[in-house]
Amino acid sequence: MVEATQRPPMSNKQVAGVFKATGDLLQILGESRFVVMAYTNAARTIDGLEHDINEIASAGALRDLPRVGEAIAEKIQTLLDTGALPYYDDLAAQVPEGVVAMLQVPDVGPKTVQRLWRELNITSVEALKKSAEEGKLRGLKGFGAKTEERILKSIELLGRRSDDRTPIGNSLPLAESLLSGLRAVSGQGAVERISVVGSLRRWRESTGQIRLLAVSRLSAATLKAFTTLPQVSEVVQSEPDAVTVSLVDGPQANLRLVERDHWGTTLFLATGSQSHLTAVAEKAKAIGWKIGEGGLTACDAGSGAGNGSPGESGVDGGRQVFDSEESLYDFVGLQWIPPELREGDGEIEAAAGRQLPQLIAGENILGEVHGHTTWSDGKSPVAEMAEAARSRGYRYWAVTDHSVGLGVTRGVDAAALLEQRREIDEVNDRYAADGIDFRLLQGTEVEVLGDGELGLPDEVLAALDIVVASIHSGLRQDRERITERCLKAVNNPHVDILGHPTGRLLGRRPPSEIDLERVLKACAETGTAVEINANPERLDLSADHASMAVGLGCSLVINSDAHSIAQLDLMRFGIHTARRAWLRAENVLNTRPLDELLALLKRNRSGRSQK
Questions:
Q1: Which of 143, 252, 495, 602 is most buried, with most CB under 10 Å away?
Q2: What is the C-alpha to C-alpha distance for residues 143 and 267, in angstroms, rounded to an integer?
Q3: Alpha-carbon Rg for the chain in angstroms
Q4: How far is Cα 588 from Cα 403, in angstroms, rounded to an integer?
Q5: What would the pLDDT profile of 407-435 be if each residue is shown by its tens digit?
Q6: 363 secondary structure, DSSP code
Q7: Domains and CATH numbers, the chain
Q8: What angle, rounded to 10 degrees, do the helices at 12-28 and 86-93 form?
């Protein structure tokens, strides 16, 4: 165990989790809606903070946070000071542990759990599964055979979740905090090179252990410094060149040190995937070399040489070493292959023919066309979100607050849209007067209702610059019903973009049963663009589905779906999802200048808007 003089500070996510769990317990226990909302709202506020909750508390500013009253602020302070919340502990003692565990089943919320416990005395996931299999849930009002089937599917999904996999939205920020912390504490210039490796470097949706690779001039000091970072709770294993630790708020993490001359080979091997490594090894073998941790070894004395000069690499007898990946790939006759493509899915053949695509990059994005402000459930007003978008180099940004029809948030109706338009015009006028090339668009994220109708009438949608149609409720409808519902929205001439099409939440909610191929074909036919939602809780479309969409002739957009200024930075998750799908900048509409983007929207395409 790492010895520490004080308890590591709690993260924003940890504090938010305690208050969300408190709200869930209150709802299970039948507390009033207003009390429940006090805790769930506080959780949302804390989770969306752009500053460390500990710094806010130290400044005595907890009470200044939105939706945080005096009583909640006192509880936050108690939690930060002691690492525990007695109020939560008292509530948890009143609810069987297995009842709380049922909240982990996707789509089974606190109200449902309360009824299952109180009315059927179901107190565990196992008992819930057994009752559903035996048809006993339909004894509850509002429950039927389809409800039982849906719950069984959700329990199956829960069972498939791997306990050692962490969504990338959690693991990547953790890895980056470890990288920056290690650089800061390991000594001036000690760490010469450092990188995340494994599936995290390939930007897969979930990762196992966080793995870091580094070159350091002070090996022992660097490994020791890693174990003393505040994110670390315990040393699991220590070796002369590596250390594995448990983290306070996340999975295990491993740091491995390597010699500078071996950086290229080790970085390549540690990144994977296994199928990619095997394919590159075959290329090396074909010219007489075997890939290993120490570099490339000649299969037979005096056999094959590489395809070109060693460059940054070096030859020592029958061994070839590389201090860059580029020189390794070049030696075996391949273009350097971006980590996102290293999945054994045709990248070797493309690299051998020097035909890898020029993948989309963050600098290609000129603006976003799906984002939120305080007009609905966003945390910042229009002018602040506009300036934040402009400061990130964007040339345009679309205000697309939720329409009416979405019950869980305050929606914007036709009258409010008129007021919002005036505010947007004022912001645009100020930019124009100052000679600033930036423009706000007005749109909506219109709710697709249960029957496929939209949350706003056509005449209102027609007056907007852009319309994103999304499904947030009724996601457990059967395949035919939710597909037809989506198709009806896609065929509306005023819908420009289909937002987060499958409705999934990674690790929390499975995708809907939608016939996505059928929907994407309709999007291609009608000219409706399809979104890659960059929020790492969604990544919807996924890389596989984005590849399918382009193959079917769809145009795509990538949006952070930002509800706060900080969430604008989630765009990178969408970019790397697109790169995993082999997308180029020309596949994505919001890499285009504004006039070109507007001309390519469905409503402005000749003939398309009449379909």
A1: 495
A2: 53
A3: 27
A4: 25
A5: 545 789 999 999 999 999 999 999 999 99
A6: G
A7: 12-160 (1.10.150.110), 166-257 (3.30.460.10), 263-352 (3.30.210.10), 365-604 (3.20.20.140)
A8: 40
